[in-house]
Design a protein that fits this description.
alpha/beta; ten-stranded mixed sheet; two-stranded antiparallel sheet
Length: 357
Amino acid sequence: MSPVTTITTILFSALVTQPVFAGEAVGVSETTIHSPARGKDLAVTVWYPSDGKGTQTLSGDDRIFQGTPVFKDGALRPGRLPLVLLSHGSGSRVSGMAWIAAKLASEGFIVAGANHPGTTSGDSTPADTPKIWERTDDLSTIVTVLTAKGKWSSVIDAQRIGVLGFSLGGSAAMEISGARADLDAYVRYCEDYATMMDCQWFAGGRGYLDGEPVSVPKLDLRTLDKARFEQQNRDPRIRSAVLVDPGLALAFKPESLKEIDIPLTFVNLGSKGRIPPAVLADKLADEVPGATYRQVDEANHFSFLPLCKPDADAFLKSVGERDPICEPAGLRDRADIHKQLETMIVAAFNRTLKPGQ
């Protein structure tokens, strides 16, 4: 669950948009949903099957990443459709999952995700990062509001709701599915693997507020609220989960994994022997009844981020970015990796949220 560092100041810059539109018609709508737990509004994006008559734009386009063709506020196609929630990685934004959100929408899913306060680009601190319970509450709040009333409630099938989480978002997807974290195990993990990117983040003494880097105290994981960190965050409305490089992989209570009663699909990015222990999910899949495990060779953790623009890597280096956000993971092109991931993720949700179809 590595944070994306200097990029947090970049994503507030002017968009560079040169639309090229092709493929299935996908609509996108941006809204706010109030979070009683946080006492503030969540910025929520919804992707959906559309009639293709809205304003053409690119979802998730910015100085670094290529956007995905969509129709802003296009009309909803009729029907009762499954809902897939998104939970982005630490230091990112939900727009960074636009590529997979649009693919799911083109396949007949309503897809919705929020920017999680405290762990979002430009608004990210070590102290907020381990508060998984805030992320799960964000997801549950989105379900409650979208299925209660208004235009979304008329098209969402509340009996078919899934969640797709990446990195720290994978941790949230784990917990909303029934897994419970173990604080002592997490402390041990960062003692044993102090050089892992997530543990370095806690020890780094820096964060981001209002799009600017700030100095913050180093986080001692032992000071976390143990009861909140280990609490049960299961939402029974969630019927399926796909977890891509889930964070906290070594810090879940084994007994909680054995009690998960919905289908989970784990996906790791990387060839065998090259996947960081922070996110290695094969043993998690072994513990969860009926879980499925998939692996994407010649990829890495950053392969799940959007396709980069041609000059993005040089630009990132020029501003001091340390994470290999746009560097190739190996011989495979990121677009090719995305195609494989799209096939895996769509198949998983078709199997678990569209039975008999």
